[in-house]
Amino acid sequence: MAIKLLSKVRVEDARFGVYSHRLDDMWLVRGASNTGGAVLRQIFTDDQLLALSRDIDPSVPSSLDYYPLPKKGERFPVSDPAWCQDCSLGPTTMRSICKAS
Fold first, then answer.
1. Which of 34, 51, 62, 84 could lock 72 by a disulfide, CB 3.0 to 4.6 Å apart?
2. What Å distances lie between residue 29 and 3, 20, 34, 51, CA to CA?
3. Distance between CA atoms of 68 and 28, rounded to whole angstroms?
4. What is the pTM of this model?
């Protein structure tokens, strides 16, 4: 996932991978994120992902507040090579979290 927008002011925040490039008299603000698709494939089978996806109602906010990472050092949302929200969280725990929400 990527964001791009034009701004009258320069926007920079290395903590979140947001940066700007000059574009005439404006700034092109950019940022990117791994949306988590790769880590979900490490935890769930295709059939499990399909079943869980059927239960998602995009018009209802999720109670989940978890950013699964496949390994230490993913650069988004925190630019820290040692950061990992909980890389040890395995498939059983992730399945329980998804079913409980």
1. 84
2. 8, 4, 18, 37
3. 29
4. 0.43
